[in-house]
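Collaboration report, partner site 2.

Our partner group contributed sequences for two proteins of shared interest, and the home lab folded both. The records are reproduced in the order in which they were received, starting with the first partner submission.
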Amino acid sequence: MKTASWRFVTVLVLGGLLCSCASVPKPAAPQREPVAARLQRAVIHALEKKSDLAHAAVDGVLEEAPLSRSAWILRACLFLEEGQLDAAARAVAHLRTLAPGDPEPRVLEALIDRRRLRPQGSWLEAMRQAWFDAGRPSLFYDGDREELEPGIQDVIAIVWGRTEDVENRFLAMLMGEASEAQEQWMMDHLSGLRDPVLKLAAFEYFHRALGTREMAAARKRGRDLLRPEMASLATGLNRSDLPLLLLLGETSVEAPLTREELRELERIAELPRYRDTRIARLGDEAQWRLEPLGVRHPDWSFYWAAMGTRLMDASWQLHYRLRVPQEQLTPEERIRLGQAVWKLGGRITEGGTSVEWLMGHRLMEQGALLTGDEAGRALAAAEVQRNLMAGVAATLFRFRLWPLPSFQREWLDANLEDEERLLETFVAR
């Protein structure tokens, strides 16, 4: 009996051990990174001109997903950038068999032809002409080919994690969305902004109404800290961006203009320029400062850093306040207001960016309405429409789709040099 009991217990113990062993989970096989993520990393390698890494990454993607049209587009672009036009043509030919109706193969075929004709020519011009050769197809459609567009860099995290330089950190804030703590830090260190252009940009930055109501209210401290210096700087200034910001920056968009504001606006409108700085120089400086800190180039962040120094908020404020009926002014005063706004709008259009061109002509249109100048209003309205058409054309072209670093650099440089002129070249040949 004892023997039987012992055997029974032994069976139970061994059975329990076997069951417990069977229940131990096997180590999971490592999951492969999604194709889209690997493709996007390959795009970044391509834009950084790390062609060996880019080729290896796209080859790996095609082994797993041989029908990936985005991967074939990237492979063709890699060969194009290297000047291997025959290899690029073979990649595009295969792409066309995968998707005969897609517009990208037509554009790439035309681009290869253009590069054969002028291998040392402008990438930007070759791509623009290729798009026209292909019939100006729309390349803008939701949710497709997004993996070919490099992901947005978290510039603030990159720069703030690597330096405590106040000016570099502020430039990063112009490129991204700063937290409340970061804005408070910047207000505590405003004395570190030595560049007058960045001081002006900071003064405008702290007029922003973005974010929570608490964040918008907290920015008043930044404005108050900078206002005495800004008011002193504006005295005798021969440009109108800062005086206009001091005049309208903290006013309500729902309020009509007062007679006192009209008189100051007339004085500002007689100043010879809206601003002194060229956006190309500002973009170059942002790149010079932040590329060594890990912000890659070409990248659209440098454009937004430059745009953040343009002091456009006050002109938008004026635009909205002019939409309010100006019944408190006499007919003569409304004419004077229209004349001042027309002049100021004309100054703003000289800036070279699409936003300045659009905003300047919108103000000119409003000024012409106030003076009763129908011909002037029609002229300004036509320029506004032309600006919008140019923007639509550039959207259809979808410049970020093409992982060609030489083209992307030329595109960014042309935007910073004269964005409006660049966009208009996509309306007609």
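Second partner submission, folded after the first:
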Amino acid sequence: MATAAEVGGSADLVLMDDVSGTVVTIAVTRGRRTSLDRVLVFMADGVTLWYDRDFVTASHHPDVSWTVDGRAQRVRVSVHTAQDLEPAEHLAGADEEFRVPVTLDLSLGPISLPVPRQRAFADGGLAGSQVYRATGSVAAGSVVASVRGQAWVGATGFAASGNEGGTRLQAAFQDGSSMLATAPPTPGDVGPGAFQEHTETTPLTVSALHVEGPPRRIPTRMICQLDGTLQREGGYTVLGGYRSLDQHLAFVRASSDGQGWVRRAFTPYDVARSGVTGFGLLEQVGRVSSPDAPPVVGTGIPETF
């Protein structure tokens, strides 16, 4: 089965660093030439660094390479980023200051086999998504930090700018396991999910991925139900809450049909299942109700729960 780095179209990587707790996500579009769509770095100290190609001018020229050598992969990125020190929402077309140079150099070795095609879903579900052991470095300005952790790599299209709806959770646990879950598209339906333990990644279905919190602000808590399949019994209940009041990043851009606006939000999350804790990244994509350019929502601090 081809990996996400070997096929055309969108591919993304989400890394949970065991050393510092940093969360990194990289999204690219592959074709004759690989282009960088997005880089987010959620530092454990509360600083957020980001780049999104839809929010920069033509003067920015990031450098990205994603190479495959057998089963191993290497991802290298060099880009100017904007910096947020608190929860933030950004509107396409607004002036942003991209001044912090960020360099990422990651080597990836597979932990388990890719998720097989999930026949319950017309698009194959999470087919080809795979868990890797990632090592390397993240440099912000002149400060270089080593990273070591688990990374999900996939080519499902969820991270593509053309996706305008859905919720996704990726997380790694202290016992070395990890999970990937996409919310059901409608109530009563199921979404694709997968759970990695040791060298095995099991495709599962997601019957629930409920997120609570005020609209367009930090999502306060989450519950996810991963269910077994006909081929494999059992499942997992995963609980979660935001990791920091300083980190919630959202982008608002015009919808593809020109009739509204789409908000894509990212929040580092602490999670737990069956007494095992972990952390990861919660992504939420959805329409903003206003047909006009919506005013950017202030950061706000959610009530504790």
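Feedback sent to the partner group on the second submission included the following. The longest strand covers residues 72-84. The CA atoms of residues 177 and 215 lie 31 Å apart.
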